[in-house]
Amino acid sequence: MAVNLSIKNVPEELAEQLRRRARRHHRSLQKELLAILEEAVFGAPKRLSLEEAYRQVRRLKLQTESEAVRMVREDRDAR
User: Fewer CB atoms < 10 Å away: N or C end of the chain?
Assistant: First the structure.
């Protein structure tokens, strides 16, 4: 079950920086804060090198650009 958390007395400058960060990542402020908390608790997700990404594309036998787009969107929406 999800829990609601609240942070009080956030300085305006910090809140504005968080809003900007959320916009850069195309997320709501709520989703951005959750992503920050997850990274702090569980660690940053591993980023693939270009070579690793190429191997994964080959392993998945992607044939078209639309398949790749679908997979990227699914990954992004899962965050």
Answer: N
Greatest Cα-to-Cα distance within the chain, rounded to the nearest angstrom: 51
Buried b (16+ CB within 10 A) or exposed e, 45-56: eeeeeeeeeeee
Q: Which residue has the tokens 């305006």?
A: 12
Mind listing the pLDDT tens digit of every residue in the chain (79 residues)? 889 999 999 999 999 999 999 999 999 999 999 999 988 998 877 777 888 888 888 888 777 777 778 888 888 888 7
Number of H helices, E strands in the chain: 4, 0
Around 21, how many Cα atoms within 13 Å sit in the side-chain half-sphere?
14
| Range list of H helices, the chain | 12-24, 29-42, 50-60, 65-78
